[in-house]
Design goal:
mainly alpha, two-stranded antiparallel ribbon, 5 helices, 2 strands, 4% strand
Amino acid sequence: MQTNKLNKYTKYLMVILILQVLLMFLNLAFALWGEYMHGYSSNIWAIIWNKGLIGLWTLLAGLVTVVSGITGIVIHKGNKIQCVLSVVTIASIIPGLICFIFAIGSKF
């Protein structure tokens, strides 16, 4: 009987998915709590966004997420868990971009 063990790429996809969710949280944290008052940042989220780090990481993570998901689908070789994680990872780009747009829109 063959067990369906998690290979290295499946673990990598899990880490990428977790990082994508964390970036979504940071984007929403800025959108909901990051405000500018009297010409300066009012909290840590706004300060981080002011430097552009979260926006840059969100865009780079989106690219890495899509490439990793496509690669996972191509090399899944019958591993259903990896195939499902790949599809979920690719699909996570949509809520990630919505959170990113929400965060940018909250600045204006």
